[in-house]
Amino acid sequence: MNIADPKYLEHLRDLPSGYLLDLVADNEDLDEESIYWVLQERGLSREEIAQKLRRRRNSTWPRTYTLWAAARWITLVNALIVTYFNATGFYQILNSDHAFKGPILFLSLGSMLCGFFVGFKLTTHLYQGGKSLLYCGFPIPVGFVELQTGEDILKDKAAMILRMALNALVGVSLTLFPLIFIYMMMD
Questions:
Q1: HEC states along the chain?
Q2: CA-CA distances (angstroms) from residue 30 to 1, 13, 47, 123, 152?
Q3: CA neighbours closer than 13 Å in the CB half-sphere of residue 2
Q4: What are 119-135's pLDDT values in tens digits?
Q5: Cα(180)–Cα(175) distance, rounded to whole angstroms?
Q6: Strand partners for 126
Q7: Per-residue pLDDT tens for 41-92?
Q8: Apex CA 147: angle with CA 120 and CA 41, to 5°?
Q9: Which of 44, 106, 142, 178 is most buried as measured by Cβ atoms within 10 A of its Cβ?
Q10: In what order do the strands lie in the sheet with 126-130?
Q11: Are strands 126-130 and 143-146 parallel, antiparallel or unpaired?
């Protein structure tokens, strides 16, 4: 029982109740008493906690981290498809003598800057990516937090920068898509 460890309790207090319930529901060898303590501080009784845990364990719905894993893969596949579409569409724009070529290229630059910002924001997104891991960065995680211990797990600097760049490229690709699509429909 880690109730006496204030650092561990502070770590647990930082986590949403759903993460705490998933931790208890998925891990048998966990200090449940500390998690119960934090959930009781939030106004839940032991009976309510037990009922919510029973409901989570018996649910046929996939856990949150399973849905996030599927969302990451779907986003990556869609980003690859959209990137190919954007590259071919951008090539057509550059080789055309369309009346709107200049404004479209200018809007493309603005769209890329906006997409880079979206990609940066994706890099700071936190979500439960594994049974006991909190991921930072979507769709490619740049860092992790072990939910049971509160330990930060960081990649080396080069890998982290590469992952941040890939997230930015996903953002650029997804924000550039509507503009290229509109151009393709106009042509």
A1: CCCCCHHHHHHHHCCCHHHHHHHHHHCCCCCHHHHHHHHHHCCCCHHHHHHHHHHHHHCCCCCHHHHHHHHHHHHHHHHHHHHHHHHHHHHHHHCCCCCCHHHHHHHHHHHHHHHHHHHHHHHCCEEEEECCEEEECCCCCCEEEECCCCCEEECCHHHHHHHHHHHHHHHHHHHHHHHHHHHHHHC
A2: 9, 16, 19, 30, 19
A3: 17
A4: 888 888 888 888 788 89
A5: 10
A6: 136
A7: 989 899 999 999 899 888 888 888 889 999 999 999 999 999 999 999 989 9
A8: 110
A9: 142
A10: 126-130, 133-136, 143-146, 152-154
A11: unpaired
Structure tokens at 145: 């937090």
Residue length of the chain: 187
